[in-house]
């Protein structure tokens, strides 16, 4: 075959291959090259958006826990009676649309011998507390059920709380069971679902205190977490 024909065929074949691009900004957005090799900045933005979306999701296990954190009447019946008194820090609590009083229970009488740490009565009073909203103008009897659960605070291993007992869980175990937290503040992680909150504080990568709270809808934790919520 004549040499000139071979040169022509080689030139034609090369013209059908993909052009060589040295600057990604020169590639049209609809080009197959742009789709196959997106710029690094775009890829990072897409990954960041995916992570943000995942963080906003609520794990089914967390929903189940926050929807049914504790059978209050059964708990009081099994472990009561307890010391009790008015709850003073109430600004971030859910406020039912009925006359009543925020009330708290501490140092459940039958609980000490059941806890792994066998705390003193004084320690138990400081480290475990249940807050309720009691309906009506009279406090009434300890075993009355005219109330609803508002908060649980605990700084000791308390297996009597069931799934609500996050004490001793590692960060890895907690995230594996309930997903990524919606908020992080220092050593605290905060899980949110429909104005119900679980807060865990880590020390040496293990939960050393936790609390459940029914939150006042007017409190937006994304705009800032009240320090009174984190105090123990």
What does this structure look like?
The longest helix has 17 residues, at 40-56. The protein has 232 residues and is α+β, with helices and mostly antiparallel strands. Mean pLDDT is 83; it is low at 3-27, 29-37 and 43-54. 30% of the residues lie in helices and 24% in strands. β6 (188-193) and β7 (196-203) form a beta hairpin. It is built from eight helices and eight strands.
Name a few traits of the molecule:
232 residues, alpha+beta, 8-stranded antiparallel β-sheet, 8 strands, globular, disordered N terminus
Bulk shape: globular
Total number of helices: 8
Strand content: 15-25%
Report the sheet with the most strands, covering strand number, pairing sense and barrel closure: 8 strands, antiparallel
A few lines on this structure:
This protein has 232 residues and is α+β, with helices and mostly antiparallel strands.
Write the layout of secondary structure elements.
Elements: H1 3-15, H2 32-36, H3 40-56, H4 60-67, H5 72-79, E1 82-86, E2 100-108, H6 121-127, E3 128-135, E4 147-154, H7 171-178, E5 183-185, E6 188-193, E7 196-203, E8 206-214, H8 227-230
Antiparallel strand pairs: 1-2, 2-3, 3-4, 4-8, 5-6, 6-7, 7-8
